[in-house]
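Async update (no meeting this week)

Hi team, since we skipped the sync, here's where things stand on the single-chain job. The sequence we agreed to prioritize is pasted below, unchanged from the tracker. I ran it this morning and attached the output directly underneath so nobody has to dig for it. Comments welcome in thread, and please keep replies under the output.
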Amino acid sequence: MLQSRETSESRGSGGGLMFGGYGRTVTAAEEVSMTSKIAAEAEAQGFKSLNSGIDPAITGNYLEQMMNGTFNKPVGVAGFRWEGKFYLNDGNHRMNSAIQYKILTGDYKYMDILMNNAKWDNANPVNYGKVYKFPVKPTR
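Output:
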């Protein structure tokens, strides 16, 4: 189970960035705030990436499924585990969405599902390519 470190409070908007707050526009400050929350949670969990970015449309789709309870991917994430960190080379979109879900709801459910089904190689990831901070661009 993932660490239960609270990095932020739930905004309670039940979809926040994904749905535009149910009719209200999302300001740049809110987007930056979500970006910093995703980065803080990823850092707290020890997530890094072998990918330089993500597509917000894909994370938006996954987050929508998580919010409405239809996310049903039996796969986890994959990559390298090295010196207490997790370096994802597969599943960055799913994990980004799961982190956003946790931020919005306070529930680690989908992060746990992804980690419980993860496949890790115990190897130094720098031997296989460039390492990036976890991609944090919010869904919209």
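Quick observations from my side:
Helices lie at 16-23, 28-45, 56-68, 92-105, 109-116.
The mean pLDDT is 80.
Reply here if anything looks off.
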